[in-house]
Amino acid sequence: GAGVSQSPSNKVTEKGKDVELRCDPISGHTALYWYRQSLGQGLEFLIYFQGNSAPDKSGLPSDRFSAERTGGSVSTLTIQRTQQEDSAVYLCASSHQGGRETQYFGPGTRLLVL
Amino acid sequence: GNSVTQMEGPVTLSEEAFLTINCTYTATGYPSLFWYVQYPGEGLQLLLKATKADDKGSNKGFEATYRKETTSFHLEKGSVQVSDSAVYFCALSVPPGNTGKLIFGQGTTLQVKP
């Protein structure tokens, strides 16, 4: 079956612009996670969804970052007024129900802020 | 707080050599422990996991044992191949209220030479 997909695969934007990153989880997976992979900070958790609600947003680095999930499926991560330090690979993962279950990762979106 | 520490890389080995990548953790509860691998140009994949003390995870010839007394989860393989060249990440997730969010180590790059 299809894995986790993310789009776009690459995004180049100018400082100050808004960007939207999309994640399509594996069908039937209720848990969805966003992570960020950057040279300076390694792999960091951003936000967790269970269904359409986000019980854990503790990793979002600032109020410029937001995310939503609709229909218990697709999720969008939005970064407003992008800064150069936002440049990173943004990874999405899903699991069947969260908790100790295996998370399956998408290929990521590579964001470059000029 | 919760954290994961991995040995720094890069690790360079000849084919058929023995591999150990050290991983130690700090956790407030009883974590589940994971090794993820990222092959060049590919997304993160779960390599193996262990959910309680003394469990051994294994996959593709790799093994790791959950050692509560030493808070460690070292990755081992008896005979590495060139195809094992990748970045390896140790990670944990902690209950209770376990969202399943992963806390990653910094990653260790393994290069295997023919």
**What's the oligomerization state?**
heterodimer
Order of helices and strands of chain B: EEEEEEEEEEEE
Report the major sheet of chain A: 7 strands, mixed
- Fraction in beta strands of chain B: over 45%
Dominant shape of chain B: globular
Terminal-residue CA separation of chain B: 41 Å
> What's the helix count of chain B?
0
Quickly list its features:
heterodimer; A: 114 residues; mainly beta; four-stranded antiparallel beta sheet; 52% strand; B: mainly beta
Quick structural gist:
With about 110 residues, chain A is an all-beta fold. Chain A is about 0% helix and about 50% strand.
Characterization of this structure:
The complex is a heterodimer of chains A (114) and B (114). Helices cover 0% and strands 52% of the residues of chain A. Chain A has no helices and 11 strands. In chain A, the strands form 2 sheets. In chain A, strands 2, 4, 5, 6, 9, 10 and 11 form a 7-stranded mixed β-sheet that branches. Chain A is globular, with a radius of gyration of 13 Å. The model of chain A has no long low-confidence stretch (mean pLDDT 93). In chain B, 0% of the residues lie in helices and 49% in strands. Chain B is globular, with a radius of gyration of 14 Å. Chain B has no helices and 12 strands. Chain B has strands at residues 3-6, 11-14, 19-21, 23-26, 32-38, 44-50, 56-59, 62-65, 75-77, 86-93, 103-104, 108-113. The interface between A and B is medium-sized, with 26 and 23 residues.
Ordered list of secondary-structure elements with their pairings:
The complex is a heterodimer of chains A (114) and B (114).
Chain A: E1 5-7, E2 10-13, E3 19-24, E4 31-38, E5 42-50, E6 53-56, E7 65-69, E8 75-79, E9 88-95, E10 104-105, E11 109-113
Parallel strand pairs in A: 2-11
Antiparallel strand pairs in A: 1-3, 3-8, 4-5, 4-9, 5-6, 7-8, 9-10, 9-11
Chain B: E1 3-6, E2 11-14, E3 19-21, E4 23-26, E5 32-38, E6 44-50, E7 56-59, E8 62-65, E9 75-77, E10 86-93, E11 103-104, E12 108-113
Parallel strand pairs in B: 2-12
Antiparallel strand pairs in B: 1-4, 3-9, 5-6, 5-10, 7-8, 8-9, 10-11, 10-12
